[in-house]
Amino acid sequence: MIDASTFLRRALLADAVFSGVAALGFIFGAGAFATLFNLPEALLRETGLFLIAYTALVGWLASRTAVLRPLVLLVVVGNAAWTVGSIALLFSGAVSPNLLGELMVVAQAIATGVFAELQYLGLRKSGGAVAA
Length: 132
Fold this sequence. Notes:
single chain; mainly alpha; transmembrane; Integral membrane protein; transmembrane helix
């Protein structure tokens, strides 16, 4: 366990808030977003369901003053992988979003990359091991 810096906790909280909003939007608005972005409705809904679990984990981490460093690193690496995966999805040909869909995927990839960077910086600002 390490002492989580305020910077790290705020970066995690911001990620949880944005991920939670996206989760609700994708779950309850999957049909409308599928039409708007020309993306598969199932992809959007399943992404939303995943984000519910992710939001719970990141929100829980944000609420702790002491965190497991490997768990925070998992979030950072997951965010970085999500960023790369989102861009790869656009080049894969597996989906054919319209221009608005492409912009949405790129925008959320950038946001996720920013969260990864902020969380990594926050982890570096965090204190040493916490005595049990």
